[in-house]
Design brief:
The complex is a heterodimer.
Chain A (H helix, E strand, L loop, with lengths): L1 H18 L2 H25 L10 H19 L2 H9 L2 H6 L5 H30 L5 H29 L2 H17 L12 H8 L2 H14 L5 H26 L4
Helix pairs in contact in A: 1-6, 2-3, 2-6, 3-6, 3-7, 3-10, 4-7, 6-7, 6-11, 7-8, 7-10, 7-11, 10-11
Chain B lengths: L7 E14 L2 E14 L3 E5 L6 H8 L7 E6 L2 E2 L4 H7 E4 L11 H10 L5 H14 L15 H13 L5 E5 L7 H18 L2 E6 L2 H7 L2 E6 L2 E6 L1 H6 L4 E6 L3 H12 L8 E3 L2 E6 L2 H14 L6 E5 L3 H9 L6
Parallel strand pairs in B: 3-8, 3-9, 6-7, 7-8
Antiparallel strand pairs in B: 1-2, 1-4, 4-5, 9-10, 11-13, 11-14, 12-13
Helix pairs in contact in B: 3-4
Classes of the chains: A mainly alpha, B alpha/beta.
Bound molecules: adenosine-5'-triphosphate and magnesium ion.
Chain lengths: 253, 323
């Protein structure tokens, strides 16, 4: 099928270009490790405070880091597509008979694989520091990173191509990123927050995704939190893929 | 030279594109009709902002027309864009390669989007690079190539699937004279050997002149002239004679004499230089000299210039292409 040929060609090209930028890959790997080593120890102390949810501090902390990795790893890829557009690469590909979906999905696939590798290193380091969960919980964590990463990469590519300027794209990303980070309990559980903040955060889908992953890490696979978080994550990837495809196809409008 | 004998390969009717820029409409292309025949080299000549790139992008399915229709290599632009894409090559004005990709990788991955196998892509890629004097760039990063080398690499990419129709948007921008001449040879060779139809934009008059079987002149989104380079130039009235004198007064006196000659238009004097046009410079010059001699005036320099495409443009639009 030509779709899979196109997908593979776009993916391998993107992957080769990523691997040729070892510094970027290294920084991407370093970030979660820094969080683990420089922020993790503080959290171990905070875990003693009343209001901290059940489970040990690593089971609380690592799901948050994984969700953060997925969201932010995906969110910034739009900068790359703006640069590609400027060099004429996007138009050069659009003028071929290649599937439009493959042109964006091949790039997203590259991002997902980079993110999953980063997540595996993160989890490995966390294990070394004291994380103990089942293999299924770890797998669920990686799947969640992949889903979130893909959804945000699609959306980020769409936004980057729609805006076509780094100066316009950066504020959009920041405007979006900060509330998501603060209202999702990624770093500190929202159970520590005052009542009104908890209510506000209930409207943030990413909080529910974090909570779902925390439940999974506790071994609570059957809890309603897990169902809600999974449904939200699947919805997100559907919306992301749809928006991404729409914007890519609209490039020739 | 094969001109106008083949079947039509591009037929555009009323093609139009209006951009929206900050809420205000910009009429980039105002309903143009054009026909290009198989095997032709057509030059699309016009100043910056005339609408050349916009027209090309519409014909390449990169931009939806806001009005009109076109058939490109037998496929309708709106109904079968994928069919068009399969049959055409396009070299954009903006480039086509990533700086940190290797030239060979870009060529092969581009070819594979047309369904060409890896080995075949590499074979064709190396042959094309060779033909455009780029034999040793296969393993070089695109960003490390000089501007002109990178431009030629863009052209290699656009030709890799051996399309029947190629659109080249200012192919020779940034090339030195030797590379330009080589590119022209290659473009002519493509047509002569493989019968490829070539539609190229340029604002170099010498390029349009040297390369095209037929020229379309575009200005402000509309085609203002069309024809072979020779026919276009023949339409401009006459040759320009430029005479230099020792001083301004002599030039002024010579202008009065030149103005009274048969067929000459109003002479212009600039410092000590006199310029006027006559239907035929070769036959007018002896008369000019004898008339000047009788009045005791001797020019210190003389030049006769045949009309150029710039004069064509000037006559059509009242502006020079060079501005
Ligand atoms: N995306 C766009 N949005 C708004 N206006 C545009 C856009 N692209 C082009 N234009 C305008 O349309 C007109 C035609 O542009 P076009 O790029 O087709 O010109 P061109 O003949 O290729 O010029 P050049 O020789 O500089 O390449 C110009 O006035 C340009 O400013
Ligand atoms: Mg242009």
């Amino acid at each position: 099928m030509t779709f899979f040929n196109d997908l593979w060609v776009v993916f391998t090209r993107a992957m080769r270009l990523s691997l040729r930028q070892p510094l970027w890959v290294a920084i991407g790997l370093l970030q979660p490790i820094l969080y683990l080593t420089l922020f993790g120890p503080i959290l171990e102390q905070v875990a003693q405070t009343p209001g901290f949810p059940p489970g040990d501090s690593w089971q609380i902390f690592v799901p948050g880091l994984l969700v953060q990795l997925g969201i932010f790893g995906g969110l910034f890829v739009g900068f790359g597509i703006i640069a590609e557009w400027r060099t004429g690469v996007i138009d050069r590909m659009l003028v071929t008979p290649a599937s439009r979906t493959a042109l964006i999905a091949g790039r997203v696939l590259r991002d997902v694989i980079v993110l999953v590798v980063q997540a595996m290193i993160l989890v490995g380091a966390a294990w070394f520091l004291g994380l103990r969960v089942s293999i299924w919980a770890l797998l669920a964590g990686l799947v969640m990173v992949a889903l979130l990463g893909a959804a945000f990469a699609f959306i980020s590519y769409a936004a980057g191509l729609a805006i076509k300027s780094e100066d316009g794209f950066a504020p959009v990303v920041n405007f979006f990123a900060l509330p998501v980070l603060l209202l999702s309990g990624i770093l500190l559980p929202m159970t520590l927050a005052p009542r009104w903040l908890q209510i506000v955060s209930d409207f943030n889908p990413f909080k529910h995704i974090v909570e779902a992953l925390r439940a999974i890490f506790r071994g609570d696979f059957g809890s309603p939190e897990v169902l809600l978080g999974s449904v939200l994550a699947v919805l997100l990837i559907i919306i992301g893929a749809w928006v991404g495809n729409r914007v890519f196809a609209a490039q020739t409008k | 030279m094969t001109t106008g004998n083949g079947a039509p390969i591009i037929v555009a009717k009323g093609l139009k594109r209006t951009y929206k820029s900050r809420g205000k409409p910009v009429e980039a292309v105002r309903g143009i009709d054009l026909t290009v025949r198989e095997g032709e080299i057509v030059g699309f000549l016009g100043p910056n902002g005339a609408g050349k790139t916009t027209t090309l992008k519409m014909l390449c399915t990169l931009l939806e027309p806001t009005g009109g229709d076109a058939e490109v290599v037998g496929c309708d632009l709106r109904a079968d864009p994928v069919g068009v894409r399969r049959r055409i090559g396009y070299v954009s004005q903006a480039g086509s390669t990533a700086s940190n990709a290797l030239a060979g990788e870009e060529i092969v991955s581009h070819a594979r989007l047309y369904g060409i196998g890896k080995a075949e892509a590499e074979r064709r890629g190396r042959a094309l690079l060779d033909a455009l004097d780029l034999a040793d760039v296969w393993d070089r990063k695109c960003g490390s190539l000089s501007g002109g080398q990178r431009r030629r690499l863009d052209i290699v990419m656009g030709l890799i699937h051996e399309p029947r129709l190629v659109f080249l948007d200012e192919p020779s921008t940034g090339l030195d004279p030797q590379s330009r001449a080589n590119l022209w040879d290659h473009i002519r060779g493509l047509r002569d050997r493989m019968g490829t139809t070539i539609f190229l934009t340029t604002h170099y008059m010498d390029e349009a002149d040297a390369l095209s079987d037929r020229i379309l002149v575009i200005d402000h989104g509309a085609i203002v002239a069309e024809g072979t380079p020779a026919a276009l130039k023949a339409g401009v009235s006459g040759d320009t004679i430029t005479l230099s004198f020792a001083d301004h007064e002599t030039a002024e006196r010579a202008a009065d004499i030149a103005g009274s000659l048969d067929g000459a238009d109003t002479p212009e004097v600039e410092d000590a230089v006199l310029r006027f046009r006559v239907p035929n410079g070769g036959t007018a010059l002896p008369q000019v000299f004898s008339a000047l001699g009788q009045a005791g005036l001797t020019p210190i320099g003389v030049e006769v210039k045949r009309p150029t495409l710039d004069d064509v443009f000037l006559t059509m639009t009242g502006r020079s292409l060079r501005d």
